[in-house]
Write a structure and sequence with these properties.
With 373 residues, this protein is an alpha/beta fold. Helix content is 38%, strand content 16%. Bound molecules: NADP nicotinamide-adenine-dinucleotide phosphate. NADP nicotinamide-adenine-dinucleotide phosphate (NAP) is lined by residues 10, 12-16, 35, 39, 67, 86-90, 94, 116, 141, 143, 219, 221-222. Belongs to the NAD(P)-dependent epimerase/dehydratase family. Dihydroflavonol-4-reductase subfamily. Residues 6-287 form the NAD-dependent epimerase/dehydratase domain. This is NAD(P)-binding protein.
Length: 373
């Protein structure tokens, strides 16, 4: 609603920035909790913010260097009506957890992902309870990885075995136990972090009498235009290697880190457009939407369709060698989600996979073109 103040975390990242733009476009005032002045300057200089030209009363920033610190958000929550909490470590460079001995690495993966996410969620809830007298709702970003076993995302056999060989359909109310440590990979630690932080937030909300309610938004893999990305190396623009570029060296069998990888990749076919995810977060603030519920956001994607769809919309980059029809063979794990509430309750129609490809490839080609000349 126009003029209400929203505290937004993660606003210097891909999704959070898109939420920020949507909030401003819909008349909210926004206080962004950021970790550095450098990131604040980047957000202020991004195209949609420049175009919207918000006043100092419409867009403000507060520095919160460590979301896991005790009372980190005590100041940031003051006078706000809503919170959207989208901050979370997503990569090892956020986590700085990739060096040291194996046991130190495993421990630091747990600290950097699981502890940070859980403390971040609990810390913002505690600050809201103790210092945010006007807060009516907190919308938290989660992830579909929080509510399905990690094996489901990359292993068709595991899905078939666990769910009797049927195509799996999971809804927003599905929950799983928190995977036990040790976490031996970033992915493992990240999935555990999302499950543990969702459970921690919901348990906190259930066990305390609060003035506000909680809504969790669980998107699948988010694709889309990334205004904060400065070059074409962004994973968002390369579509997670679904669209390989022409190899600069001979294709390599078995080297998954290499752009020329020739093998097979089996992974769950789930994707959602970033602007749809942002819209869902902002729609969830509306008082006509009941609190204490969750939403799963996803449209089914068949990864093996990516190259044919792209070719149909953008034939030239294949002719000129920008994209390469070779590369790994993708196989899609059939894990489906029940997203009906997103349309019925939030009124958001999720974009098709085809539309997502068009948006991402369009931005990629624009950025590549401007970079080369
Ligand atoms: N990307 C996806 O495909 C996807 C899918 C489903 C759910 N999600 C969820 O969506 C949310 C945003 O993801 P994203 O793709 O936008 O990631 P992103 O671009 O990496 O942005 C992450 C944001 O969180 C902040 N952050 C990271 N670690 C932090 C920490 N320890 N303390 C405080 N802030 C921290 C970052 O701040 P800096 O800018 O200072 O680094 C940044 O603002 C996350 O909760 C993620 O789990 C993402």
């Amino acid at each position: 609603m126009a003029g209400e103040l929203v505290l937004l975390t993660g606003g210097t990242g891909f999704l959070g920035y898109t939420i920020l733009v949507d909030l401003l476009q819909h008349g909210y005032r926004v206080r962004v909790a950021a970790r550095s002045h450098e990131k604040i300057a980047k957000v202020r200089a991004a195209p949609s913010i420049v175009a919207l030209d918000p006043t100092a009363a419409q867009l403000m920033f507060v520095i919160v260097p460590d979301m896991a610190a005790l009372g980190a958000y005590d100041e940031a929550v003051q006078d706000v009506d809503f919170i959207i909490h989208a901050a979370a470590p997503l990569h090892a460079d956020h986590a700085s957890a990739v060096s040291g001995s194996d046991s130190r690495k495993v421990q630091s993966l747990e600290d950097a992902f699981v502890t940070a996410c859980v403390q971040g969620n609990l810390g913002i809830l505690q600050s809201a309870r103790d210092k945010g007298k006007a807060i009516r709702r907190i919308v938290m970003t989660s992830f579909t990885v929080a509510i399905a076993p990690a094996d489901f995302f990359s292993n068709a056999a595991a899905v078939a075995q666990m769910e009797g060989g049927e195509e799996v359909i999971r809804g927003p109310e599905a929950r799983i136990p928190v995977p036990e440590p040790p976490y031996n990979s970033q992915l493992h630690a990240y999935c555990a972090a999302r499950t543990a932080s969702l459970e921690a937030a919901e348990t906190f909300a259930n066990n305390h009498t609060l003035r506000f309610d909680l809504i969790s938004i669980m998107p699948s893999l988010i694709f889309g235009k990334d205004e904060l990305a400065t070059d074409t190396d962004s994973t968002r623009m390369l579509m997670y290697r679904l669209l390989p570029q022409m190899p600069s060296k001979a294709p390599v069998d078995g080297d998954t880190a290499n752009n020329t990888y020739q093998g097979e990749i089996v992974v769950v076919g789930n994707a959602v457009l970033c602007t749809d995810v942002a819209r869902a977060h902002v729609r969830a603030l509306d008082p006509i939407v009941k609190g204490t519920q969750s939403f799963v956001l996803n449209t089914d994607a068949r990864w093996e369709d990516t190259v044919p769809i792209t070719k149909a919309h953008f034939p030239d980059p294949f002719d000129s060698g920008v994209f390469w029809p070779g590369g790994p063979k993708w196989f899609t794990v059939p894990l489906r989600w029940d997203t009906t509430k997103v349309r019925d309750v939030l009124g958001v129609e999720l974009a098709t996979y085809d539309a997502k490809i068009k948006e991402v490839v369009d931005e990629y080609l624009e950025k590549a073109g401007s970079r080369h000349g």
